[in-house]
Amino acid sequence: MKKSFIIxxxxxxxxxxxxxxxxxxxxPVKPINFIVPIGSGSDGxxxxxxxxxxxxxxxGQPVVVVNKPGAxxxxxxxxxxxAKPDGYTIGMGTVTLVTSKIQGLFPYDxxxxxxxxxxxxxxxxxxxxxxxxxxxKTMQEIIAYAKSHPGEISVATAGVGMSQWIAAxxxxxxxxxxxxxxxxxxxxxxxxxxxxGGHTDLAVLGVGSAKSQIEAGNIHxxxxxxxxxxxxxxxxxxxxxxxxxxxxxxxFGIVIGPPKIPKEAFDRLTQAFEVAAKDPEYIKYLESxxxxxxxxxxxxxxxxxxxxxxxxxxxxxKAGILKGK
Length: 325
What we know:
The protein is α/β, with parallel strands linked by helices.
């Protein structure tokens, strides 16, 4: 009996040397799901996919994009927030991570997720119709006319509460003048149809939506609502700040996860996505899509989002649609 015990003890010791007690495999040891809360082929989705591919190569494990669109991105946000905080379900947030709670559409915001770095920003633009009764060519012409004809200049915007609607309201508010904003049922295509057809004088929309109509000569860009000019062929279009209006609005992408992700997983993910976001090929890809590279480390994201939150609350308060705090 004693001899058997000694043999068993020795065997256990050898096993312990091969697999030390408490030793864990280094994260990640299996594929990671990356939830994109918007549709496949959308601007945000197309910005995320090459980033995720690069991060996957850094991590040494597949990172699989899973689209979960709907309900203003909140379907995807719920799945990210409620996932097991082990680092194997993460995803992306956009500006709706700021706006949804303020609109009363979602109980959480950026403060309720693990934030692991930003990776792009995409500004809307102000365009003018070449077919309206007032084919404006410059912001100076627009402002001069608005001063002498308050409320006459029509502006097509996205639906009330949507990102590009907020951008439009921020711009109009910054001028201190009266315009005639006309919200559409949706964004993008319906907005550009109004201005390209000459039904409105101006519109605020994304470059992707405007591109074909700019090339057709039905509209032309007046100003960018971003913090810097667009890259590429539209780099001659000034920002509103350059024109003397202290306002910017941009959608952006943040790598997010459920709260309380373990430090090891957080550190590895943060490092991998920073490498991906700063990769020269990825930056070149963003520029080809009229987006700007934009990396903020985790400890700067809350302050950045707080600035957006204050602007949204002011605009939605004026519009009477402020619900969250």
